[in-house]
Write a structure and sequence with these properties.
The complex is a heterodimer of chains A (338) and B (509). With 338 residues, chain A is mostly helical. Chain A has 14 helices and no strands. The longest helix of chain B is centred in the N-terminal third of the chain and has 30 residues. Classes of the chains: A mainly alpha (338), B alpha+beta (509).
């Protein structure tokens, strides 16, 4: 099994090279075609038109687009993604510093979405054919129709403003330190032995993670329920019943395992969408992740930063897909035979 | 047995958690009188204060660094690190005398070496700094003693004193940067300001601790946490829930609501920022009648009432009340009938409207798009049919450079100094990238004023220019912009005419 997984990862890595090249070229072209002037943006407002023109030449913006791309690509392959126009810092290091924050948030949100999605899916399946089915259906559709940023505002209002139960700005309470070891705050707080920081970080993570998780859980619920419906038409379910197994054991011990595979595929796709959904949620909750940084980059037409963030999103999605496919191989014996 | 162990572990964990929370709460409570948390809309671009001109970051920089000169609440230039200054009559040099009792946070004494390094050596060394542009006229800084120096300019620099208290002009430590390197300086910035930077997290928070060895008045509050909250609704929620003690730039309607709530105080403060229509001198606006009609048709008082609770002062010139360039004896009146008459002279009417374009940002400053929509309606009443298009602020300069802006563009311009050069001088200078108005007549007048060293003569020149520009339809000033502040009622601050909310002026009562 390990050999199959390793082969799959190797194949994916090879396939990732042309994908990344195409995506980076597309990103580069699209960003350069925007009617923004990086030269003017990189100079103070007092700069004259002549100074802006000189800056444009210095930045190589007067050269043909393919030549500009080749220069960028060569630098990128050497780890130099350019300097942020707005912050004046290396774009790569800025993204690297904010990426763990977003991964932590997206990971927590995905875990919540999975728990709520699987729990909800089982509940939806359980109430099939009863009077509760239309109500449960309606609720799941209602959940499905609320986007993550709206969840963000609703949760912030209820639990932050009205009930005063949870904090909603930043990663930890003012006065507590932010350790920097791995970049993953929950882990770092434990590594330095600060349980108070860990607790505060958890409290600050709850609302944004729920805002993202709640938006994505209904899809998992509904796909799981559909998969369970399909699985329950299989012969082995009838055989299990004939063997006298309880409905609970049939559901959890047999049907769920098989219904989980399409749900896992969906969860992989959803994680990519969820990751990009962090953008607005991070802004609402002042969470210092990559989404928040991207908002700054867009606002300031910070092309080097936008390019680096865009490419990072692409890499994250490729990694997620590889992980999901590997899990698929682990969970599905048929794939291992091939 | 297993259950008992798990239960015991659980109880230990729960009690530990409760104790930690309780302790944290007590610490927070004990520190409350000497600490404040501010909800701030934007992060600083960098901890090199010379690097990037970002108006919103200036109050944060002013907490950690000092400027050679400062401004009082009403923007009058006052001594700061510089005790005295003397701009030569020809504007080609400026002698300065620094205080001799100032030390950087690391204990190094601040001298004219640091002054020369900040305003000359760093700039000439090729480091990418925005101050390289504002101080490009500096030819040399001659050091006469540790406290005395003379700046030499290659051409007249009449606004050099104003720029000493403006964007990016903060003295940085030469010895520290040269010995530690720029990267270390950016990680551990050292200034001479009333606060030291204790902690910084990009796009999250800035923690400042009082500099107890500060040469000037000590800050009243020991620890200031600046929480970066970019979303206006989240800032409202943060102050409402008590997660911050003070915040700014909240929607105007929230100010009225907070004023009715016990424990809060909220203000709408007019500031030195103007909202205007930048116009072209060609296309349909080549016709002066059309330009003037467009201006006469705008009811600025109605715009102020509708979008700024009436607090934004309607403007007739490109200057705000109380600043040197403001004209109290000149008013460009709202007169839709006159607008119709002017349009009729050019054969336009509501039945046969003149077609123009209006560009506006959406969300760049409060109610920008709504103001633009209201103007379109006002214009429609008199016979101007405007096609409204939304542009990104970042695209403004590119569109202007390529001559692609429409006849009018809604724009906002900030000038913390209040000096008319930085209002109408920059806005109407054809060599600068702000205004789409490209006209020899006004262009020559503006460029001439950039070299006038005599203060009174310069101000008089700008006052004439402002009237002339508006009467000729070269610009359409609309409103003085406002800054909204919501705070806990027992938190006081010093109000500045330019909208600065300085952490060192905060105090609990």
């Amino acid at each position: 099994m390990i050999a199959t997984v390793l082969k799959l990862i190797a194949r994916r890595l090879l396939a990732a090279i042309p994908i990344l090249l195409v995506v980076s070229a597309l990103l580069f072209c699209v960003l350069r075609l925007l009617p923004v002037d990086p030269a003017a943006m990189s100079l103070p407002p007092t700069a004259t038109i002549e100074e802006i023109d000189a800056k444009r030449r210095e930045m190589g913006l007067d050269r043909p687009l393919p030549q500009q791309y080749l220069i960028w690509l060569t630098d990128a392959l050497h780890g130099d993604f350019g300097r942020s126009i707005q912050f004046g810092r290396e774009a790569g290091s800025m993204v690297w510093a904010t990426l763990p924050v977003t991964i932590e948030l997206a990971g927590a949100a995905m875990a919540l979405a999975a728990i709520l999605g699987v729990g909800g899916g089982l509940l939806l399946f359980h109430v099939r054919g009863t009077l509760f089915e239309p109500v449960a259906d309606l609720l799941s559709i209602l959940l499905l129709s609320i986007p993550e940023f709206l969840w963000g505002l609703i949760l912030l209002f209820i639990f932050g403003v009205v009930l005063h139960l949870l904090p909603f700005t930043g990663q930890v309470a003012p006065g507590l330190p932010l350790p920097h070891i791995t970049g993953f705050l929950l882990l770092d707080s434990l590594l330095i032995g600060r349980f108070d920081v860990f607790l505060s970080a958890c409290q600050h993570l709850i609302l944004p993670a729920f805002a993202l998780g709640l938006a994505f859980s209904p899809t998992i619920m509904r796909v799981l329920r559909s998969s369970l419906f399909d699985v329950y038409h299989e012969d082995y379910i009838q055989q299990a019943r004939l063997r006298g197994l309880s409905e609970g054991r049939i559901l959890l011990g047999h049907a769920l395992k098989n219904a989980a595979l399409p749900t896992l595929t969906l969860a992989g796709v959803q994680f990519g969408i969820l990751f990009s959904g962090t953008l607005l949620v991070e802004v609402i909750y002042s969470y210092p992740g990559m989404g928040n940084l991207m908002v700054d980059a867009v606002r300031n037409a910070d092309l080097p930063l936008l390019q680096t963030i865009g490419l990072t999103y692409c890499i994250v999605v490729l990694v997620i897909n590889t992980v999901v496919d590997s899990l698929y191989v682990v969970l599905n014996p048929k794939l291992r035979v091939r | 047995m297993v259950f008992k162990l798990q239960r015991r572990s659980f109880l230990q964990l729960a009690l530990g958690t409760a104790a930690t929370v309780g302790t944290s709460a007590r610490i927070a409570s004990a520190a409350a009188n000497d600490a404040v948390t501010i909800g701030w809309p934007n992060d600083v671009p960098s901890w090199d204060p010379n690097q990037r001109f970002t108006p919103d970051a200036q109050p944060v920089f002013k907490a950690v660094f000092d400027q050679p000169l400062d401004q009082d609440q009403h923007l009058k230039l006052i001594p700061h690190l510089i005790k005295s200054w003397n701009l030569a009559a020809d504007g080609l040099s400026m002698a300065v005398e620094l205080r001799d009792d100032v030390t950087f946070h690391n204990g190094d004494k601040m001298t004219t070496e640091d002054f020369r390094y900040t305003f000359f050596e760093r700039i000439k060394s090729g480091i990418k700094l925005d101050t390289a542009n504002s101080w490009k006229k500096v030819q040399d800084i001659v050091i006469e003693s540790p406290t005395k120096a003379t700046m030499k300019f290659d051409s007249p620099a009449p606004t050099a004193p104003q720029w000493m208290a403006f964007l990016g002009s903060y003295i940085v430590p030469k010895k520290y940067i040269e010995s530690q390197g720029l990267d270390n300086f950016l990680k551990n910035p050292v200034g001479t300001g009333p606060y030291k930077l204790a902690e910084y997290e990009l796009n999250s928070r800035i923690v400042l601790e009082r500099n107890d060895k500060y040469w000037g008045p000590k800050a009243k509050i020991g620890r200031v946490t600046i929480q970066i909250i970019k979303d206006p609704s989240a800032r409202v929620a943060a102050i409402q829930s008590g997660q911050v003690d003070c915040t700014l730039n909240v929607p105007v309607r929230e100010v009225e609501r907070f004023n009715k709530e016990a424990g809060f105080a909220a203000e709408i403060n007019p500031i030195t920022r103007v909202i205007l229509l930048n116009v072209r001198a060609d296309l349909a606006f080549a016709d002066k009648n059309v330009r003037l009609a467009a201006h006469h048709a705008i009811d600025k008082t109605a715009l102020s009432k509708a979008f700024y609770g009436g607090a934004a002062v309607p403007l007739s010139v490109l200057a705000t009340p109380g600043t040197p360039g403001y004209l109290t004896d000149f008013s460009f009146k709202y007169d839709p009938e006159l607008a119709k008459q002017l349009l009729a002279k050019s054969n336009f009417s509501p039945a046969n409207p003149v077609k123009i374009g209006l560009a506006a940002t959406n969300g760049q400053f409060p109610s920008d798009y709504d103001i633009a929509r209201a103007i379109v309606q006002m214009w429609k009443q008199v016979g101007i049919d405007a096609d409204l298009q939304v542009i990104e602020y970042a695209k403004y300069f590119e569109l202007n450079r390529g001559g692609k802006l429409p006849e009018a563009t809604l724009y906002s311009w900030d000038n913390a100094t209040g000096d008319p050069e930085i209002f109408s001088g920059y806005q109407l200078n054809p060599k600068m990238p702000f205004s789409p108005w490209k006209d020899e007549d006004i262009g020559q007048k503006v460029l001439g004023l950039f070299s006038v060293a005599d203060y009174d003569k310069r101000i008089a020149g700008y006052r004439d220019l402002e009237r002339y520009a508006v009467e000729n339809g070269a610009t359409m000033p609309l409103l003085q912009s406002v800054l909204t502040i919501v705070r806990k009622r027992n938190l006081k601050y010093t109000k500045y005419d330019n909208g600065w909310l300085l952490p060192q002026t905060l105090q609990w009562t």
